[in-house]
Design a protein that fits this description.
There is one protein chain. By secondary structure, this protein is of the alpha/beta class. The chain is built from 11 helices and 9 strands. The chain has an 8-stranded mixed barrel, surrounded by 5 helices. Strand 1 and strand 2 form a beta hairpin. The longest helix is centred in the N-terminal third of the chain and has 32 residues. The protein is globular, with a radius of gyration of 20 Å. The termini are far apart. 33% of the residues are buried. The structure holds ligand C2E and calcium ion (CA) (3 copies). The site of one calcium ion has 3 residues, from strand 6. It comes from Marinobacter oulmenensis.
């Protein structure tokens, strides 16, 4: 037994060692990914459950690694956040998303684009100016941009976050709380923050109709949204039953594989046509 135990220990050390090496390699590759044009955005439609119309899209980042293929954002975003490269990458995302929004508007399909804003980006001194400058440069009206921020963004310096989000909101940008209920939720910041949207995380939607706790959590978020006058959007909607339940319960917006997975800009345009022509 002792023998086996020590083998386990060696295996454990070896795998940590490998994990560290892989992370270091990814970190190195990440630093060059922008310069080598390895990033692109995909867009997932957001649907109004009452009007059954596509009201916007969430832009999601994809990294096509030259040797390893597609690396999921959950793998590389935390690395980019810990070494600060997320600032430059996030600015690229914003720029690309605004460029796309301008293009769609010029083609007669003005859509609201939701962009994920890392807590690290929000801590940047110049973030408000950077966002507004990007909108201006692409001539995108601020009302067409939504920023998705997580609860962790409010934790390090609440007043600083309030101040910046207020300035962004006053300019016309809408703010959504992403992954709502998964972090250190506090009703204090909901009161202080100029937020207009709550996103129910997909972990509560997956078993929405199977697990009673998830049903209650989703209901609670929908009711909270109603009483605070916030639009609630459910993410990760995969079935017609989930969609039906959520719309009956009063959740206004949804996104998920049931409607569409995230799509390239081109595929998104086709989807938009076929969805509204049904
Ligand atoms: P998120 O912001 O919570 O995004 C939702 C994730 O759920 C996306 O994963 C999306 O592809 C996935 N999803 C959408 N519909 C469904 C569904 O019906 N079922 C399931 N199982 N999943 C669904 P993705 O694209 O892999 O992104 C993962 C996370 O990476 C995002 O979570 C976000 O936190 C982060 N991320 C992605 N792009 C960016 C970015 O440009 N900037 C920053 N800071 N973070 C990003
Ligand atoms: Ca998001
Ligand atoms: Ca989420
Ligand atoms: Ca997230």
């Amino acid at each position: 037994a002792k023998q086996a135990g020590s083998n386990h220990f060696q295996f454990y050390v070896a795998s940590i060692d490998q994990e560290i090496r892989e992370r270091k390699q990814l970190e190195k590759d990440l630093a060059q990914a922008l310069a080598y044009h390895q990033f692109h955005l995909v867009y997932q439609p957001q649907i109004n459950l009452t009007s059954r119309r596509i009201i916007g899209a969430e832009a999601l980042l994809r990294w096509e690694h030259p040797d390893r293929g597609m690396i999921p954002p959950d793998r590389f975003i935390p690395i980019a956040e810990s070494n600060g490269t997320i600032v430059e990458i996030g600015q690229w995302v914003l720029d690309q998303a605004c460029w796309q929004a301008a293009r769609w508007a010029s083609e007669g399909t003005p859509l609201r684009i939701a962009v994920n804003l890392s807590a690290v980006q929000l801590r940047q001194e110049s973030i408000v100016e950077d966002v507004l400058e990007t909108l201006e440069r692409h001539k995108v009206p601020a009302g067409r941009l939504e920023l998705e921020v997580t609860e962790t963004s409010f934790m390090t310096n609440l007043n600083d976050a309030v101040d910046k989000l207020q300035r962004l909101h006053r300019a016309g940008i809408s703010i959504a709380v992403d992954d709502f209920g998964t972090g250190y939720s506090s009703l204090t910041y909901l009161k202080k923050m100029p937020v207009q949207h709550l996103k129910i995380d997909k972990q509560f939607i997956r078993d929405l109709l199977i697990n009673e706790e998830d049903t209650r959590i989703a209901n609670t978020i929908i009711d909270l949204g109603k009483s605070l006058n916030l639009t609630v959007i459910a993410e990760g909607v995969e079935t017609a039953e989930q969609e039906y339940y959520l719309s009956q319960r009063g959740c206004q917006l949804a996104q998920g594989y049931f409607f569409s997975k995230p799509l390239s800009a081109r595929d998104f345009e086709h989807f938009l046509k076929s969805f509204h022509d049904r």
